[in-house]
Amino acid sequence: MTAAVQAAPAAVPALGAEAPDFELANQFGEPVTLSSFRGQNVALVFYPFAFSGICTGELCEIRDNLGMFEDSNTVVLGVSVDSKFSLRAYAEQEGYKFDLLADFWPHGAVASAYGVFDAGSGMAKRATFIIDGDGRIRYSVVNPRGQARDFREYRSALADLKRD
Question: Which of 4, 19, 126, 149 is 20–30 Å from 60 (CA)?
């Protein structure tokens, strides 16, 4: 019996680095490409799974404060390894008005490119990247398993974008 050989995961991109571009299907099956948002800021929010407790709490907090992101010209993109079908049901149930992207196949490829795929559990880690209109990473955080993100950090990172 031989063990599967896996490529070494990419490192989390450094602040100021160009964000890895990607194309994923949203909850409606429509293609969404990161580079199509040049000129706007993007909050790229990786989360482990749809319908899970901490993830739902975090995304509902974003949903309830979406105006804060819009006021700083920031588009929210949620990313998980779930299928587009699961994400559509999740978005409808929770009333999310932002895109949820399916990093389903190749499984976790985008999370891997951002250094936040946990191959042992097959899920994305809880991570956020705020990307400026030039495609550069201006803020990032990767939280330990089971620990929710601090929403106040979003406020601070978005305020920093407005000052520049």
Answer: 19
